[in-house]
Design brief:
Layout: H1 25-34, H2 45-57, E1 67-74, H3 89-100, H4 104-112, E2 115-122, E3 132-134, H5 152-167, E4 173-179, H6 183-195, H7 199-202, H8 211-225, H9 233-240, H10 243-257, E5 261-264, H11 267-279, E6 287-289, H12 296-305, H13 321-339, H14 343-346
Parallel strand pairs: 1-2, 1-4, 2-3, 4-5, 5-6
Length: 352
């Protein structure tokens, strides 16, 4: 028998959850949820989330005890076109802020008891810190307004590096965040090429562009999109993505194949999930979409994926912050199924 391929070596078109659970497990999970001490359906989306987690773990008694957030950071050549309100130097500065524990993601992670790690996927600066995971593909991508953001080989290297990080550890659930000035521009172009939705519909204010800045950003992205015709998801990622987005895609796919729950954050993370799920739809059962962000393109990507996020808080920060806020809901859903008494257990009479 041929040896099993490592997650980063499996062709993207064949990625699936494995092994499959017992054929009748879904029915048994639903029966277990419906016979808890509550009216059927009274916990709404939490019941659906519990069923998804139980099916993913292949058990009637799922556990969600540990989560991990990995923040991937990378710079983008298209920042030179003025598509962000912030200078590119902020990417490196924010990486150091993450490592110092001062960002929103750090605060939310500490509050939720979630481990956090930071990865240099392609920051345009040389950073030294004992806790920084360095997987730098290059010091930022090329300017995708004029040519491919990265080569196909660079894209594959980034996805493989992400897959290795997504497959390691023992967390029950994983969150992936990002930092990279101009990465909403990259996510917009990737989403445009995969969904076919107009660039203008997908383009948002990112770091807070005013009306003039938004018009300029839209014009730049429309010009960049016009360089190429129809693309596969992998080609769209290489032409227009970022090293941090490619690493997130690799990490999500590998974590999903390992039957870890992937809590998908906002627009940038959802663009990475869009690549993965377009290539491998069967991984959908491992993904929970945390929130609907205020970024223009995010709701369009969610609609394309037919994904209903758990939260809608008007957020647009990234960093995995929305995924962290969804983690308590995930834990509660699993605990409901595992720890809540049934009518028979509690001796409670059922309704007619």
């Amino acid at each position: 028998m041929a040896p099993e391929l490592a997650p980063e070596m499996v062709p993207n078109s064949t990625l699936e959850l494995a092994p499959d659970p017992a054929p009748d497990l879904a029915a048994r999970i639903r029966h277990a949820i419906d016979t808890k001490t509550k009216p059927p359906g009274s916990l709404g989306r939490i019941e659906d989330l519990a069923a998804q987690i139980a099916l993913l773990q292949g058990t009637l008694t799922p556990r969600m005890e540990r989560a991990q957030l990995t923040i991937f950071a990378g710079d983008h050549g298209i920042a030179a076109e003025g598509v962000s309100a912030f200078p590119q130097a902020v990417t490196a500065q924010m990486v150091l802020n993450f490592l110092g524990g001062g960002a929103a993601a750090n605060v939310f992670a500490r509050t939720a008891g979630v481990a956090l790690r930071v990865v240099d996927a392609g920051v345009a600066a040389e950073l030294a810190h004992p806790e920084l995971i360095v997987r730098k593909i290059a010091p930022g991508t090329a300017n995708s307004a004029h040519g491919p953001a990265m080569t196909a080989a660079q894209c594959e290297r980034a996805r493989a590096a992400g897959a290795a990080l997504g497959a390691d550890g023992h967390a029950d659930a994983v969150c992936f965040g990002e930092m990279g000035i101009a990465n909403t521009a990259a996510a917009t172009l990737v989403a445009h090429k995969i969904t076919g939705r107009p660039v203008a519909e997908l383009t948002g204010r990112g770091t807070g562009l005013d009306d003039g800045g938004l018009r300029r950003k839209t014009e730049v992205l429309q010009r960049a999109a016009g360089r190429t015709g129809a693309l596969t998801p992998a080609d769209a990622l290489a032409e227009y993505g970022g090293f941090e987005i490619a690493m997130m895609a690799g990490a999500m796919a590998a974590a999903a194949r390992a039957r870890r729950l992937v809590i998908v954050d906002g627009f940038i993370a959802s663009a990475a999930a869009l690549v993965v799920l377009t290539e491998a739809p069967k991984l959908r059962g491992a993904m929970v979409f945390a929130h609907a962000s205020a970024e223009a393109g995010h709701r369009a990507v969610l609609a394309h994926l037919r994904a209903e996020p758990l939260l809608s808080l008007g957020m647009r920060l990234g960093e995995g912050t929305g995924a962290l806020l969804a983690w308590p809901l995930v834990r509660a859903a699993a605990a409901m199924l595992t720890d809540m008494a049934s009518f028979d257990d509690a001796g409670v009479s059922r309704g007619l």
